[in-house]
Amino acid sequence: MKRDFLSELCPQASDRVTIVAMNQDPIANQSSNPQANWQAVARWDDLPDQAAIEVVIGEAIIGIFREGDAIWAVDAICAHQGGPLVKGKLADGCITCPWHGWRYRLSDGFNTTTGRPMLSTYPVRQINGAIEVFA
Predict the structure, then answer these.
(1) pTM assigned to the model
(2) How far is Cα 45 from Cα 131, in angstroms, rounded to an integer?
(3) How many other C-beta atoms lie within 10 A of the C-beta of residue 113?
(4) Which one of 14, 58, 61, 114 has the fewest beta carbons within 10 angstroms of its own beta carbon?
């Protein structure tokens, strides 16, 4: 993303958003600025209800899922065999992998069959029309 895109996306927060390139360490950035890890990834209006997008922040591949007014950010790759979760079925706060049907709760990354945590989750928020992920 370019700095001018961020200014347009969320003008009041543009001074708080730092772009983390693939070779930068987001943890190191956090120590110098506690807000440095909130990353603008999309516009709220560009992610319709019952939709998902995939974003890359640093080395993390993250799925952003919207269901009504709720949004979640979790690992975008299925823990079973690497299926693309953003292409799965979203229902009742869960995502089902399109490859083999593994289902995960988006709120905590737990597999609904085993009851075990299998996906990392990330804080996500909507601010000034932007969706931001803390990663």
Answers:
(1) 0.73
(2) 9
(3) 10
(4) 114
